[in-house]
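Appendix C: a fully annotated inverse folding record. The material below is reproduced so that readers can follow the format used throughout the book. The structure is listed first as tokens, followed by the designed sequence.
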């Protein structure tokens, strides 16, 4: 193996690592891990490309083309599940390319990268379900201690119990059961695999949506409501949303001076004394925001209505092609972005952080909500599978 490509890799990876470190160091949200991860992928492609060019081939262009396809579609609309599908597909293509590159070049750095990724995958498959169960039970205990015992806050516990029962039944019953139990059980297994695949796509799409860094030239920031304490005070969760909007508002005013208004969006629920937007405005004013810089949208009861009614309010301000952001918790901004797209509101979301223990339940709720948004498609696909198993059973019985 020639030492020159390896030295080149060390050189341009080190330079890129240092450049990204100092570039992101002074940012409000450095996200070093994300940007360094992207650079590592780029550096690997540059390295493998160098090896290939020395061998007279150019197959490294294939994963690059898939990545650029993903990126173009992602840039056009960041809030869709197709982004997760394309990114996962890119990772598969990239893994296959690394395997081919090792076959072509016999370079052990490439082999190390490939087998490290393969080892992680094997460990996830072998121990992922056990680890998931341990994590779900642990999270359920923490949530039960810190939150109210509502169905929404018990999702991790319900999922853990269901998976435990399923695994026990799968081990003890399936192989020894008659056909009329085995076939439905197999169908249930397929449904679970289908849901798992959709969850991976959803999670990938949600994570990709987090990495957005808007310019400080926005005209409006919509803050999405989230319930009140005693019907009149913002909750800690809602306060974090408002604080995130205030942070951006103040940074823009100090950096560029571009005028910006906060749109407090939230109607009045049956158990609330005032509209959420009014309580949100009161909180923002207590943090030093000028009252004239706050607009109220106090009629919405859903995230979709948040987007529709806020859009109407913004259009009435008379700004041509306004630049708009919205703020919600990081687990919610992907679905909120889907609603913004449906409402034809050209806005992207920035998220505020959520307590780690709260994320699993919140993520499961978001996943369930997105499944319901596409329920027809899922029902059609699962119905086709169910029909196949019904026909298979009839053939088995009457053969």
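Designed amino acids, in order:
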């Amino acid at each position: 193996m020639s030492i020159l490509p390896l030295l080149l890799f060390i050189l341009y990876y080190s330079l890129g690592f240092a450049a990204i470190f100092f570039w992101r160091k002074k940012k409000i949200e450095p996200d070093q891990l994300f940007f360094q991860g992207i650079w590592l992928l780029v550096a690997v492609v540059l390295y493998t490309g160098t090896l290939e060019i020395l061998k007279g081939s150019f197959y490294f262009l294939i994963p690059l083309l898939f990545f650029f396809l993903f990126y173009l579609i992602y840039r056009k609309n960041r809030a869709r599940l197709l982004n997760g599908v394309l990114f996962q597909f890119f990772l598969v293509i990239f893994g296959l390319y690394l395997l081919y590159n090792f076959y072509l070049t016999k370079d052990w750095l490439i082999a190390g990268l490939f087998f490290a990724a393969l080892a992680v995958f094997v460990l996830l498959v072998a121990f992922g379900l056990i680890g998931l169960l341990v994590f779900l039970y642990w999270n359920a205990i923490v949530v039960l201690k810190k939150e109210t015992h509502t169905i929404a806050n018990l999702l991790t516990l319900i999922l853990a119990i269901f998976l435990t029962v399923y695994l026990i039944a799968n081990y003890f019953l399936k192989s020894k059961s008659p056909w009329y139990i085995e076939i439905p059980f197999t169908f249930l297994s397929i449904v679970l695999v289908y849901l798992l695949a959709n969850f991976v796509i959803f999670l990938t799409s949600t994570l990709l949506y987090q990495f957005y860094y808007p310019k400080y030239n926005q005209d409006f920031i919509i803050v999405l409501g989230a319930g009140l304490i005693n019907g009149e005070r913002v909750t800690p969760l809602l306060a974090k949303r408002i604080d995130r909007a205030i942070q951006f508002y103040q940074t823009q005013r100090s950096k560029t001076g571009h005028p910006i208004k906060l749109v407090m969006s939230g109607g009045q629920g049956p158990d609330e004394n005032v509209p959420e937007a009014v309580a949100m405005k009161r909180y923002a004013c207590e943090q030093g925001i000028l009252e004239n810089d706050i607009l109220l949208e106090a009629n919405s009861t859903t995230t979709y209505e948040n987007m529709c009614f806020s859009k109407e309010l913004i259009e009435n301000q008379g700004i041509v092609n306004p630049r708009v952001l919205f703020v919600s918790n990081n687990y919610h901004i992907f679905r909120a972005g889907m609603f913004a797209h449906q409402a034809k509101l050209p806005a992207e979301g920035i998220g505020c952080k959520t307590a780690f223990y709260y994320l699993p339940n919140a993520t499961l709720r978001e996943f369930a909500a997105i499944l319901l948004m596409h329920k027809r498609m899922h029902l059609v696909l699962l119905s086709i599978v169910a029909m196949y198993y019904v026909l298979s059973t009839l053939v088995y019985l009457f053969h």
